[in-house]
């Protein structure tokens, strides 16, 4: 595989071993490894970090390996953000995986083809490997376009990452001028996201992915979502930082994507799919009319008026 892979690791040797075994199957010609340093107040973490880095030494295929290892702990925001920026100082496009995101083998080919096909299309900023509603198909195409940058296994271009803003410098202007409503086309949704993004902007969540989502939104950028789920996040457990064990998107099964890909002949955001992503991934509480409608559908199904697999009136 010609496309470079960025692997972000920390203190989990067992999970790093699993993902390296999958990467070995793809045999990328270039692997860029980003590793954060141990936290000084965590006994034994230095040994875990060293053991995790040793896993990378198992690479046994022809591969150029570049490393960005930190001696100090930068955290869940700075370490990945700086690491990805460092990677794009070396390459123009890349597939990006964290140690707890295990891809199905066809994920690599899918990303490589998407990076090639949309390389010069600046409307598209992100390629995701995640789809948590693979049975809800609006079309027969192999992927659709979304406003959500699902990042449990993803890919992008240097041209897109150059627009990344970890500090969210334009947040106050976007918020005060009410641009989130223009982006989301929903006043209640805009209010909910304003609270979430303000929480991140105030430094209450040590992360980078919400800032990446915001960066794509303010550029009106689109994300590509595959028709099936290609990556499973196995990050729950005592060593997880952000992923709650009750998160319904964790440990989702994967399935291979069929090739050759069926490309949509248009670039249009799938609003119907985005609604499902919003309610599943971001716990959007539906409006009163939506709740009434959902109860009505449920009652009609129970009474046999609607088929069990009917999703809407």
How would you describe this protein?
This protein has 313 residues and is an alpha/beta fold. It contains eleven helices and ten strands. It has helices at 13-26, 45-56, 75-90, 106-117, 158-161, 171-176, 179-184, 187-201, 209-218, 271-281, 288-302; strands at residues 5-9, 30-35, 64-69, 93-98, 101-103, 124-128, 143-146, 154-157, 222-226, 231-233. The strands form two sheets. Strands 3-2-1-4-8-6-9-7 form an eight-stranded mixed beta sheet, sandwiched between helices. Helix 1 (13-26) links the parallel strand 1 (5-9) and strand 2 (30-35). Helix 1 packs parallel to helix 2. The longest helix is centred in the N-terminal third of the chain and has 16 residues, at 75-90. Residues 285-291 and 309-313 have low confidence and may be disordered.
Chart the SSEs and their pairings.
Layout lengths: L4 E5 L3 H14 L3 E6 L9 H12 L7 E6 L5 H16 L2 E6 L2 E3 L2 H12 L6 E5 L14 E4 L7 E4 H4 L9 H6 L2 H6 L2 H15 L7 H10 L3 E5 L4 E3 L37 H11 L6 H15 L11
Parallel strand pairs: 1-2, 1-4, 2-3, 6-9
Antiparallel strand pairs: 4-8, 5-10, 6-8, 7-9
Helix pairs in contact: 1-2
Compact description:
The chain is an alpha/beta fold. 39% of the residues lie in helices and 15% in strands. Helix 1 (13-26) links the parallel strand 1 (5-9) and strand 2 (30-35).
Summing up helix and strand content along with how strands pair, one would put the structural category as alpha/beta
Q: Which radius of gyration do the C-alpha atoms yield?
A: 20 Å
How many runs of DSSP E, i.e. beta strands? 10
The 3D shape can be described as: globular
Instruction: Report how far apart the termini are.
Output: 46 Å
Strand order of the biggest β-sheet:
3-2-1-4-8-6-9-7
Strand/helix succession: EHEHEHEEHEEEHHHHHEEHH
Tell me the major beta sheet.
8 strands, mixed
Q: What is the tally of helical segments? A: 11
What's the average pLDDT? Answer: 89
Tell me the β content.
Answer: 15-25%
Helix content: 25-40%
| Uncertain runs | 285-291, 309-313
